[in-house]
Design a protein that fits this description.
The protein has helices at 9-26, 69-83, 102-107, 133-137, 139-142, 151-167, 171-179, 198-213, 244-251, 271-282, 302-321, 326-337, 345-365, and strands spanning 30-38, 43-50, 56-61, 92-98, 216-225, 232-236, 256-258, 287-296. By secondary structure, the protein is of the alpha/beta class. It folds into 2 domains: 9-123 and 196-297 and 340-373, Aminopeptidase (3-Layer(aba) Sandwich); 133-179 and 301-337, no CATH class. It is globular, with a radius of gyration of 20 Å. InterPro entries: DUF2817. This is DUF2817 domain-containing protein.
């Protein structure tokens, strides 16, 4: 494993773009497109395409939740260096997207410049958006006003809120209030927006073009943060037809879960779900497999989830109200980053191995890689 985690957006962008020159020496048909999200801030979604108009298309995306793109960029590098050379490229186009949310990756936020969680923004329709009453009932816990003055004091106040929630038996309500997404509070957590964001529209166009050209589309999207510590979960859409245990055997990897409360969690406006609905409604003749690879960082115990929520709340407060001084700001950002990026070499090595095992199993199953290349 020679790849390294790069902790800033500009350096990761430079590394990714450098692959274009390498690919030009290897392949006869390569293109790069840098789509500006904010040119004044030097924010771009970079897309590298290797071959086009092939019957199969493999799309690899990172950084839909910007801060998750830090580790996602490392995984992208693993894919480029170690997986791409194994692919059957005679009939397959490759599309690499780095990152979907450059603002969030640069400023270590999950959301984009408008505080929109892009993985709650892929609604199939903006008519009759559901009202997240659970979120609104706990809004005073999730959204605090005023600058961050003292983290010790803030933790004490937060744990008092948590204790109150536990006593009232509202633990499940918290999970449902947050993870499904909300569309009422623009400055809140997991905000899904009021319409499609620029980044979302770009990805929708990319997916539609892939469906129009290819008879088979495989899409892998990298996420970090949720799930068992140091464990990569393959998260299939609830619209995916195969059950998780059968799929585990087929790809020789576990855990595999579906995006539903009984196995993982449900969400509104999910990109993977949107992709399946798009295929089902407009491109039924195209074979699709799309999944998220979710790398668990802090862990999924109750204490770990309580800590993860604290970091989300305090970071959101920092974003909108600032902090007493730069030292507090830097510490909050460090805490937040470490909720989405592994801090030990042992953790990185473990999830590196898991990623390789899972993606090779999936690509073999989908016919994009043969035994002779393994």
């Amino acid at each position: 494993m020679k790849e390294k985690i790069i902790f800033d957006y500009e350096s990761a962008k430079k590394r990714f773009r450098a692959h274009f020159e390498e690919f030009k020496r290897q392949f006869s048909d390569v293109a790069i497109e840098s789509i500006p999200i904010d040119e004044n801030d030097n924010l771009f979604i970079d897309i590298i395409r290797i071959f086009k108009d092939k019957p199969k298309t493999l799309i690899f995306t990172i950084g839909e939740h910007g801060v998750e793109g830090i580790f996602g960029s490392f995984i992208m590098e693993v894919f480029i260096q170690e997986i791409l050379p194994m692919l059957n490229l005679e009939d397959t186009s490759i599309i690499l997207v780095h990152p979907i949310n450059p603002f969030g990756m640069k400023y270590l936020e999950r959301t984009n410049k408008n505080n929109v969680d892009l993985n709650r923004n892929f609604l199939n329709s903006w008519d009759n958006i559901f009202k997240n009453t659970a979120y609104l009932s706990l809004r005073d816990v999730f959204e605090k006003s005023g600058s961050v003055e003292n983290l010790v004091v803030e933790r004490i106040k937060y744990y008092k809120d948590v204790l109150k929630i536990l006593i009232q038996g509202k633990t499940k309500l918290v999970k449902n209030a947050l993870l499904i997404g909300q569309y009422e509070s623009p400055n809140g957590l997991y905000y899904g927006g009021k319409d499609y964001e620029k980044e979302t529209l770009l990805m929708i166009k990319l997916f539609e073009n892939a469906f129009k050209i290819s008879k088979q589309v495989v899409h892998i999207d990298i996420h970090t943060g949720y799930g068992p510590k140091d464990t990569m979960s393959v998260v299939n859409s609830h619209l995916f037809v195969e059950d998780s245990k059968t799929f585990e055997k087929e790809i020789n990897y576990s855990p595999v879960v579906k995006s539903e409360n009984s196995e993982f969690y449900s969400m509104s406006g999910d990109m993977i779900d949107y992709l399946y609905t798009l295929r089902n409604e407009k491109f039924r003749d195209t074979k699709l497999y799309s999944a998220s690879f979710e790398f668990g960082i802090l862990g999924d115990s109750i204490l770990n989830e309580i800590e993860a929520l604290f970091r989300a709340i305090i970071n959101n407060r920092l974003r909108f109200y600032g902090s007493k001084n730069d030292k507090i700001k830097q510490y909050v950002k460090k805490l937040y980053l470490e909720a989405f990026c592994p801090t030990s070499e042992e953790s990185v090595k473990k999830m590196y191995s898991q990623f390789k095992r899972a993606i090779l199993g999936i690509l073999k199953k989908e016919g994009l890689i043969s035994n002779k290349n393994l």
